[in-house]
Design a protein that fits this description.
single chain; 3-stranded parallel beta sheet; alpha/beta; 3 strands
Amino acid sequence: MIDVFLVEDQEIIRRGLKTLITTKPDLQLVGEAVHGKDAIAQLTNLQEINCLPHVVLMDIRMPEMNGVEATQHL
């Protein structure tokens, strides 16, 4: 099982990706965020309980903190 964390600010895109991920038997969505700062906060919480995902699917252009900055921080 591959754990995936999704970061996307546009709700319709996030819902579509979430549907694709959840329909694959070997993928599991473990969380989602709406911008980079939200992703960092949630992933920090997951790290504290030793549950980091295998993959983070990160949008590049988002408000508050873009995907490039968030990835550099992570």
